[in-house]
Amino acid sequence: MRERYDEVLEGYTILEDELKEESEFDRLMESSYQKWLDTLDERVSDSLRIMDMEV
Questions:
Q1: What domain of life (predicted)?
Q2: Rounded distance, CA 15 to CA 53, Å?
């Protein structure tokens, strides 16, 4: 019984670690995506300003 408990506990710990890694990865991806969106927004704004100046 004790051996089975240890196996289950070890499996739970592995799953918990994997979820933490996935959560960290998701957070980093979200941050990178937001930075990309911000950069895109800046470039579009710059382009619109330049177009306004040319008119």
A1: Bacteria
A2: 57
Q: Does residue 47 sit within a domain?
A: yes
The vertex-29 CA angle with 26 and 30, nearest 5°, equals 85
Residues 1 and 30: their CA atoms lie apart, in Å, by 43
**Residue 17: inside a domain:** no
| Count of structural domains, the chain | 1
pTM over 0.85: no
Q: Which pLDDT tens digit goes with each residue over 11-51?
A: 889 989 998 899 999 999 999 999 999 999 999 999 999 98
Whole-angstrom Cα distance, residue 30 to residue 23? Answer: 10
Q: Is residue 35 part of a domain?
A: yes
